[in-house]
């Protein structure tokens, strides 16, 4: 169970349960927190003069302790440039790790991403906590038995090593993003394995997947990797060397899977794409292509992909 700071309400409930004679473990079970958290809280904030635990004073004491702790992003809070840089990065939907890497590359300033997380969790930066990307994302399982419906299917095991090693631009992975049952619209997307450059388009339904790929794949495309979904049956119309993952092995096209996870920051899983215009989708894709990536040495996918086209 992950450690989290106790809220004012939790401290009040802890006090009530303790006064009723609940054990430390019973209190932990009721509040859905770890047993050690209860022990630590009562030990730290037990009032020796009265022999009681005061939740109001305990919460204030914890607030003051966090506010003036040198371990909670004080470096950022004391430097207006760093604070503004971090906030602008968060508003641009960069992760703390991406902010840290870009800051070091552009300004030669070392600021660990853990320090940024600490600052965000402190009283100084907690107002920007909502800008952190969501960490909850689940993959949808494909229906069984689809691989047998793909004509002339070539397994990913036969994919050349140059593609597996991400040594060249033009090897794309493709997929369609999941959608709620009440809508038919979905996103067709492809990601370059080396540069992580994203191309995508909203389509009316899964049956238009191949039309979507035809519209978005650049002329520089050398190969394509797909899963075994029925929407990919007409893949031969693309006239591109195409390889298929093993059944139920979405991780074999991890670039596009990871990209969809990032895309969910802007379009939640249960969102209706009918409410997002083509212009809005394009702006999200542009923003993602201009976000620095750790795997690229904190260059952006657009920079890496366009450098290849220029040379």
Q: How many E-type strands?
A: 7
Q: Count of helices?
A: 13
The biggest sheet, with number of strands, parallel, antiparallel or mixed sense and barrel status, is: 5 strands, mixed
How many structural domains does the protein architecture include? 3
CATH architecture group name of the largest domain:
2-Layer Sandwich
Can you tell me the CATH superfamily of the largest domain?
Answer: Ribonuclease H-like superfamily/Ribonuclease H
Q: What topology, given as strand order, has the largest sheet?
A: 5-4-3-6-7
Mean pLDDT: 86
The stretches of 5 or more residues where confidence is low (pLDDT under 50) are 136-146
Helix/strand-derived category reads alpha/beta
What is the CA-atom radius of gyration, in angstroms? 25 Å
**What is the 3D shape?**
elongated
User: What is the H-and-E element order?
Assistant: HHHEEHHHHHHEEEHEEHHH
CATH topology of the largest domain: Nucleotidyltransferase, domain 5
Write the layout of secondary structure elements.
Blueprint: H1 8-19, H2 24-31, H3 35-45, E1 46-47, E2 52-53, H4 55-67, H5 74-78, H6 80-91, H7 96-107, H8 113-121, H9 161-164, E3 171-176, E4 186-192, E5 198-203, H10 209-216, E6 223-226, E7 241-244, H11 254-263, H12 278-289, H13 301-310
Parallel strand pairs: 3-6, 6-7
Antiparallel strand pairs: 1-2, 3-4, 4-5
């Amino acid at each position: 169970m992950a450690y989290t700071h106790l809220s004012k309400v939790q401290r009040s409930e802890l006090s009530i349960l303790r006064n009723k004679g609940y054990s430390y473990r019973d209190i932990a079970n009721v509040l859905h927190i770890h047993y050690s958290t209860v022990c630590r809280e009562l030990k730290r904030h037990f009032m020796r003069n009265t022999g009681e635990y005061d939740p109001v004073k305990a919460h204030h004491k914890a607030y003051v302790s966090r506010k003036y702790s040198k371990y909670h992003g004080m470096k950022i809070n004391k430097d207006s440039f760093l604070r503004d840089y971090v906030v602008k990065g968060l508003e641009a939907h960069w992760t703390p790790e991406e902010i840290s890497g870009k800051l070091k590359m552009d300004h030669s300033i070392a600021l660990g991403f853990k320090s940024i997380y600490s600052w965000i969790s402190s009283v100084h930066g907690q107002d920007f906590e909502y800008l952190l990307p969501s960490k909850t994302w689940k993959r949808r399982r494909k229906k069984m038995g689809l691989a047998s419906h793909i004509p002339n299917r070539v397994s990913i095991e036969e994919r050349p090593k140059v593609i597996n090693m991400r040594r060249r631009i033009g090897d794309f992975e493709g997929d369609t993003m999941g959608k709620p049952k009440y809508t038919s619209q979905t996103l067709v997307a492809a990601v370059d394995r080396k540069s992580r450059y994203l191309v995508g388009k909203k389509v009316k339904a899964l049956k238009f997947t191949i039309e979507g790929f035809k519209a978005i794949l650049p002329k520089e495309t050398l190969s394509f990797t797909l899963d075994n979904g029925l929407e990919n049956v007409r893949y031969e119309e693309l006239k591109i060397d195409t390889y298929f993952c093993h059944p139920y092995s979405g991780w074999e096209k991890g670039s596009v899977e990871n990209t969809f996870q990032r895309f969910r920051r802007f379009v939640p899983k249960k969102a209706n794409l009918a409410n997002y215009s083509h212009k809005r989708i394009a702006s999200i894709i542009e923003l993602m292509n201009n976000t620095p990536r750790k795997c690229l040495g904190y260059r952006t996918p657009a920079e890496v992909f366009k450098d290849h086209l220029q040379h």
